[in-house]
Write a structure and sequence with these properties.
Residues 16-76 form the HTH tetR-type domain. This is TetR family transcriptional regulator. Keywords: DNA-binding, Transcription, Transcription regulation. The chain has 208 residues and is an all-alpha fold. Helix content is 71%, strand content 0%. It has helices spanning 11-33, 40-47, 51-57, 61-75, 95-110, 113-128, 130-157, 167-184, 191-206.
Length: 208
């Protein structure tokens, strides 16, 4: 009678479990201790892996947090590839209503600590680390900005805003104040602010 074969360990599954544990540890620690106090050693200890495992996969703690953040967004079905609130950017024919809906959804996400803490950390780290900042822009910010641009371009072609409107600048006018208030805490970040922002920007874009 032959002996029963011993199952071969699944290295890929083990790696997936370790990677998932590292993601969860990094995001939890960013919220608990802040990015400045975050260390690879702390992530490794929380995840139950050796720190060399982390260094083998990522060159810095910023890279760990960025990848964990992208994974979180994908699993929560609000992909940063599609921008908060803009995964299906509405085009109802009412530009003001569409923009308010998107900005309100963005406000809700920015007020959610699970999203906001790592996003704020990555925004700040991206200034000090240009390579990380470029990846954050490419994977988190740029896709959503393009969706704003597409919607505003359609509005310009329909005559909803002035024909000479620079779509890139118009996008900045909508997104930048929201981001500034979120980063700096200069006032309440709520639906009322999002609605007022849209109204003020469209007053200028529509003209007389």
């Amino acid at each position: 009678m032959s002996e029963k074969a011993t199952p071969t360990p699944d290295a890929g599954r083990r790696s997936d479990r370790s990677r998932r544990a590292i993601y969860e540890a990094a995001l939890a620690l960013v919220s608990e201790t802040g990015y400045a106090k975050l260390t690879i050693e702390a992530i490794a200890a929380r995840a139950g892996v050796g720190k060399q495992t982390i260094y083998r996969w990522w060159p810095s703690k910023g890279d760990v947090v960025l990848e964990a953040f992208l994974d979180l967004a994908q699993r929560s079905a609000v992909s940063p590839e599609d921008d908060p609130g803009a995964a299906a950017f509405p085009d109802s024919g009412d530009l003001a209503a569409d923009l308010k809906l998107v900005l309100q959804a963005t406000v809700d996400e920015l007020n959610e600590p699970a999203y906001a803490d790592p996003a704020r950390a990555l925004s700040a780290e991206g200034i000090l680390n240009p390579q990380l900042g470029a990846r954050f822009l490419e994977h988190v910010l740029a896709p959503g900005l393009r969706l704003y641009g597409t919607r505003l371009t359609a509005a310009r072609e329909r005559g909803e805003i002035r024909p000479e409107t620079d779509v890139a600048i118009a996008t900045d006018l909508l997104v930048a104040p929201l981001t500034y208030r979120w980063l700096m805490g200069t006032g309440p970040l709520d639906h009322a602010y999002a609605d007022a922002l849209v109204d003020h920007v469209l007053t200028g874009l529509r003209g007389a």
